[in-house]
Description:
alpha+beta, 2 domains, binds adenosine-5'-diphosphate, single chain, binds magnesium ion, Ribosomal Protein S5, domain 2, 15 strands, eight-stranded mixed beta sheet, Heat Shock Protein 90
Amino acid sequence: MGKIKLLDNLTIQKIAAGEVIERPASIVKELIENSLDANSSNIVVEINNGGKSYIRVTDDGDGITDDDLDLAFERHSTSKLSTIDDIYNIISLGFRGEALASISNVSKVQVMTKTKDSLGGIHAVIEEGKVVSKDTVGCPKGTTMIVKDLFYNLPVRKKFLKSDLVEFNHVSDIVYKLALGNYNTSFKLIKDNKVILKTSNNNSLITNIYTILGKDIAKNLISISFEKDDFKLNGYISNNNLYRSNRSHQYLYINNRYINNNIITDAIERQYKSIIPINRFPVFTLFIEMNPGNLDVNIHPTKQEVKFVNQEEVINIISSTIRDSLNPSLVIPRVTFDN
Ligand code: ADP
Ligand code: MG
């Protein structure tokens, strides 16, 4: 007898779930991204105990049909990709069809959802990745996902979760990132029944920065923009009076997706070398729009990293646009507020 065995399905699913779901904030990220992909205008995130015991995300988006609901929690089930070619042209935030499967394998999930055309809503209970009950309910158009008791079936993982406060800080960090980048959608973040953040839809980016990051940051920003062919760079960067002791106020979005990219961050920071103190970091909120075909977002399950086909060109554009905008001999279009 050999010693290699095939793992059973439940074990396989729990291992796979661990790649995407590390902590409550990972769930919040996936649920909000699904709400955004479903064309929502209003998203409410409610969190108890740092998200360890309770997470509820309510949206007013497209909703899920009865038939789709049975599939939505299966692994590799997605409405966002249909052929392999689509993976080179991704415009939605999700596409791996893994999040709901993973979440429902490591916590207790309930969903309420209604599409525009259906008469009533559906309430479903999902256990170990399977829809175990479904009934009709009255509810408005949109989807509510309730996620309880994270890692109830993975005691070791549960032990690795930090205090409620630390977990909540991770949650608020991701909500702030998504709220800042999606200024056409209103966000509300509620922590143990207390409203922590509220943005409105139909905002401009700068009003959103004002609401989320505060007036002191907003008034020290310079607006930048560059456009060539199908490449656009827009947003706000700090002037020489605004810097932080860490990188927590650096926000970069590519095709509306929040992205971590050290090469871009380095290129931006280099432009500030001679104008802000050493070991201090500029603040920025930048949006890049580019042909999704020149971008690979499929390199990590959480999709926060990208690879560019023409990285050098992208870096050159960013560096020179920022250099020109910071140049004191140019007229700097500073942001002003009345009060
Ligand atoms: P992905 O987002 O990669 O497609 P998910 O597991 O996150 O995979 O979701 C599976 C499917 O469930 C989505 O493709 C979508 O059709 C549906 N879905 C999930 N959340 C929502 C939501 N809030 N509103 C509408 N549809 C949703
Ligand atoms: Mg998703």
